[in-house]
Amino acid sequence: MIAGGIQPDRLLSLVIWVPIVAGALVLATGSDRNAPMARMLALAGALAGLIVALPLYTGFNEATAAMQFRENLPWVSAFHIRYTLGVDGISMPFILLNSFTTVLVVIAGWRVIEKRVAQYMAAFLIMSGLINGVFAALDAILFYVFFEAMLIPMYLIIGMWGGPNRVYAAIKFFLYTLLGSLLMLVAFLYLYFRSAGSFSILDYYRLPLGMTAQVLLFIAFFLAFAVKVPMWPVHTWLPDAHVEAPTGGSVVLAAITLKVGAYGFVRFILPIVPDAAHLLANFVIALSLIAVVYIGLVALAQTDMKKLIAYSSISHMGFVTLGFFMFNTLGLEGGLVQMISHGFVSAALFLSVGVMYDRLHSRQIKDYGGLARVMPAFAAFFMLFALANSGLPATSGFVGEFMVILSAMRVDFWYAFAAGLTLVLGAAYTLWMYKRVIFGKVTNPAVENMRDLDGREFTILALLAVLVLALGIYPKPFTDVMHASVNNLLAQASLSKLPQQ
After folding, report:
1. Which residues contact 17 (CB under 8 A, 6 or more apart)?
2. Which of 43, 73, 307, 312 could form a Cys-Cys staple with 83, CB 3.0–4.6 A?
3. In 3-state terms, what secondary structure has residue 256?
4. CB 121 within 8 A of CB 106
């Protein structure tokens, strides 16, 4: 027993269902007359979700690559679909990241959201539980159900609380991600019949598959997860979704949902179809480098801060997929660390833009200037996050990118050279934005009246600042938990699954 009496074999169910039940309770508060109660219930539910997730880390055995905190119950017996849960060193950190981020978005929306407060808070809580289900599911159909269901709250968040073009952005987001994942369902059905009627994801790791089958499965999985990352050229939904989404929606979209796509690469593609992954590695590397370099240049031309950060996310996530397909420990761990770091940094940047937007109701860079004169505390936090986004050493943004560059150097110098350009481009577009927004003379009279951070905003940004520095200065607690699982994944990815002649 751990965490004050919680049974370890029920912990993952609590991690999934506590936020979902809390969301249902918040939804039951009804109209905006009960908004204060909805906010308090939402915060209590988000904190409860984080508290029940913490034992996943404190009780985690770093020495084994086996799935931990396993649950295995019958669900749809006729088709051998089971409610099977478990986490390893790859999936567990993202459940913690998701649970922590949910607390932040509830606090961030405390005063900003004034209409349909209960529905807004409930959507984030329910989505948090569904995303935890994605990271914990070990049954293919259970994974697919969580993977698809998490789209619904985000669709509503963008469509109901977003900007002027919110309906267009929400529909585009939904269609892109839904259509890609339908191919994943076809892949699961093929694997079900090939494995004599099993939907267990771990059973697929031992399944011999011919090269043609592997390539077709690779394409199906790749399209589902590449859209989610998103990789170039299926990235066009992301800037629209970010620009139209409310601040909390942008935070979860960047910090968490993009990680679901990258997680699919390491949970499905590398261990299930390793021969096809090696065969098509150069294709994925090419797309990743295009994202790193070309999208970085696109970010440089943006005038909207949220759109700039959205393109920055695509560029940084290119590092993740690049690291995965280096097929070495540094690359894989670097990609995973980059995912965690990007979760912290992108959340912080979008929240920072939200702080400015709440005061001036503009995301345009040209409408600002001289903020350091009126908001010095905010300017200090924003600088830390901008430097982390640029990959400054001693911040989290440096660690994962440096590991990926080193891993790429072991494979091909030119991969490392192209990847290293993102450090230059990232500094260019991020610091140029920072200079124009924070420094210089106050040219907009409305900026003179902008107040500095209040206690709620200071607390949120301070928490993220601590995490950005902690991961940057001492990444060992983050890498230790994933080391055994990464080595096991590499062993799986290096095995030929081609049938023996």
Report:
1. 129
2. 73
3. helix
4. yes
User: Taking the alpha carbons of 405, 408, 409, 414 in that order, is the dihedral positive or negative?
Assistant: negative
Q: Are 90 and 336 in contact (CB under 8 A)?
A: yes
> Over pLDDT 70: what percentage of the chain?
97
- Beta bridge partners, 71, equal 85
Secondary structure in 3-state letters for 89-142: CCCHHHHHHHHHHHHHHHHHCCCCCCCCHHHHHHHHHHHHHHHHHHHHECEHHH
Q: Which residues neighbour 378 within 8 Å (Cβ) at sequence distance 6 or greater?
A: 352, 355, 371, 452, 453, 457, 461
Is 469:388 a contact under the CB 8 Å cutoff?
Answer: no
Total-model pTM: 0.91
- pLDDT tens for each residue of 403-451: 888 988 888 888 888 888 777 888 888 888 899 889 888 888 888 888 8
**CA 185 to chain CA centroid, nearest Å:** 22
Q: What are the distances in angstroms from CA 352 to CA 231, 251, 256, 465?
A: 25, 10, 17, 12
Q: Which own/partner contact pairs does 62-70 have at CB distance under 8 Å and 24+ positions apart? A: 62/89, 62/480, 62/481, 62/483, 62/484, 63/484, 64/484, 65/89, 65/484, 65/485, 65/487, 65/488, 65/489, 67/138, 67/202, 68/92, 69/8, 69/9, 69/11, 69/12, 70/9, 70/138
Q: Which two tokens stand for residue 288?
A: 């990743």
Task: Provide the token pair at 71.
Answer: 């649950």
Is pLDDT above 70 for 6?
A: no
**Burial class of residue 5 in the structure, from the number of CB atoms within 10 Å of its CB (0-12 exposed, 13-18 middle, 19+ buried):** exposed
The answer on pLDDT for 9 being more than 70 is: no
Enumerate the H helices of 195-304 as residue ranges. Answer: 201-204, 211-228, 237-244, 247-252, 258-264, 270-272, 274-279, 281-300
Burial class (CB in 10 A: 0-12, 13-18, 19+), 192: buried
Residue 431 burial (CB count, 10 A): 15
Cβ neighbours, 10 Å, residue 30 = 13
